[in-house]
Design a protein that fits this description.
The chain has 138 residues and is an alpha+beta fold. It has two domains: 67 residues, VC0802-like; 65 residues, ACT domain (Alpha-Beta Plaits). It contains four helices and seven strands. Strands 1, 2, 3, 4, 5, 6 and 7 form a seven-stranded antiparallel sheet that branches. A hairpin with a 3-residue loop joins strand 2 and strand 3. The protein starts with a strand and ends with a strand.
Amino acid sequence: MAIKQISVFLENKAGRLAEVTKVLADAKINLRATTIADTADFGILRLIVDKEEETLKLLEQNGFTAKETEVIGIEVEDTPGGLYAVMSMLEKNGVNVEYLYATLEKKENKAVVVFKVGDIKKGMEIVCNTGLKCIDCF
């Protein structure tokens, strides 16, 4: 099952990230994973939260531009070559990985990595059919 990720578009200026995290903190929304990519003018904050719909509404009510995207959370062996095993399996099956980021979540001896792939349905099929474990929530 895919995970809902929220992408927030932010001006690249002091305090914008603090504003987003304050909105979430005040609403008692828990961040489960986060990453940010930036350019000179703007950034894209990507979030996995425990309350997706509430987060989207709150962000929009507070003047932030946000959208929801489906991503795949995969348990990856926490050993040298663990990520390569997943990447090569996706590559062999023609699934393009647009970006990925690791979470702080850990399951036994496995890390949890969030993958944004070009074809989410195909990516999910491949992951499920090859015995990898998908995470459907954090």
